Amino acid sequence: MDAFSPSPAAGLRPLTVRMATPRGFCAGVDRAIQIVERAIEKFGAPVYVRHEIVHNKHVVDRLKSLGAVFVKDLDECPDDRPVVFSAHGVPKSVPATARARELMFLDATCPLVSKVHVEAERHHANGRHIILIGHAGHPEVVGTLGQLPQGAISLVETVEDAESFQRPGDRPLAYATQTTLSLDDTSEILRVLKRRFPELPDPHKEDICYATTNRQEAVKQLANGSGLVLVVGSKNSSNSVRLVEVALRAGAGNAQLIDDASQIDWSWLDGVSTVGVTAGASAPEPLVQAVVQALQARFDVTLADDPGEQETVTFKLPRALTV
Ligand code: 0O3
Ligand code: SF4
Predict the structure, then answer these.
(1) 8 pLDDT above the threshold of 70
(2) 239: Cβ below 6 Å to ligand 2?
(3) Using 50, 70 and 90 to split pLDDT, how confident is the model at 7?
(4) Which residues are involved in binding dimethylallyl diphosphate (predicted)?
(5) pLDDT of 5 above 70
(6) DSSP one-letter string for 27-96
(7) Which of 8, 122, 175, 246 could cross-link with 131 by S-S, CB 3.0 to 4.6 Å?
(8) What are the DSSP calls for 178-220, one per residue?
(9) What percent of the chain has pLDDT over 90?
(10) Model confidence over 98-152: pLDDT tens digits?
């Protein structure tokens, strides 16, 4: 472990703080936020954004202050302003409506979510019925379901759903998943599906993305031996909520999701000698650093960076913003 200690704070209780690697922004979130920022620079304010660009309160508030206007649907957008679609993806009907209205739109759907859309279309074109593993009502699931006609995809949320799923007719099956699921929960669901349908083919590449995989692996490393794991992220951020669950299952004494340092309940630290800190894929690093500073103000902190996967993935911005 690569440990470095600031000067000991006299009289404060010692606390080891282990930082997860990697944590925080993934390439898809970074790109989506840049799309909104660049759109405001290029076209001026206001720029409309359909749904929260990413599920983080602080990101959304900052972009609002720059001139972004967040709306639930396109009918709230005027004809003469650009609109950005969020990183989670949209049903096909959304760009179709935007085109029909001749709106200027920018699609911030993460390329790894778009990849799942393309795979689902390919399976459908090959005559397969698709099982989508994911959470009902989540915008990514709504977007993926909306790539194909109604009835082409069945949503499976749980092991129980996997047991009770009925194949429509005798169509061959394929499966896809939400990109931010728990790896362990998903393999349980797949174990049931494969027992029932042994011929179910695996995707070329897993749909649960590299960022989800790496953050869950990193928090597992931290959890064992941490009396408390703090996950920086918003309540509606699916991948952040998963990090709390993964930490608890991997042995953390406690794990809490916080938007920022102000949400730390200091009684969580009672009797705790090691705290793990991580952040969901939509949580900005300055919020993580503010959590560390809040801990340093109250404890004699020994800070340690856990070793972990170095991420190098980046995604290009849409051409409309680079020319
Ligand atoms: O999908 P999730 O609720 O985790 O969304 P976030 O918090 O905005 O994180 C980005 C992930 C994403 C856009 C879909 O993979
Ligand atoms: Fe893309 Fe994965 Fe980030 Fe979602 S979590 S935006 S799929 S890189």
Answers:
(1) no
(2) yes
(3) low
(4) 55, 88, 138, 237-239, 282
(5) no
(6) HHHHHHHHHHHHHHHHH-S-EEEES-SSS-HHHHHHHHHHTEEEESSGGGS-TTS-EEE-TT---THHHH
(7) 175
(8) -TTS-HHHHHHHHHHHHHH-TTPPPPSS-SS-HHHHHHHHHHH
(9) 95
(10) 999 999 999 999 999 999 999 999 999 999 999 999 999 999 999 999 999 999 9
Residue type, 173: L
Sheet with 153-156: strands ordered across? 153-156, 129-133, 173-177
Closest listed ligand to the CA of 233: 1
Which residue ranges are tagged as binding site? 26, 55, 88, 110, 138, 179, 209, 237-239, 282
Question: Which among 26, 35, 54 is the best mutation to test ligand 1's pocket, defined by most ligand atoms within 8 Å of the CB?
Answer: 54
Which domains does the chain carry?
14-25+213-305 (3.40.1010.20), 27-110 (3.40.50.11270), 111-196 (3.40.1010.20)
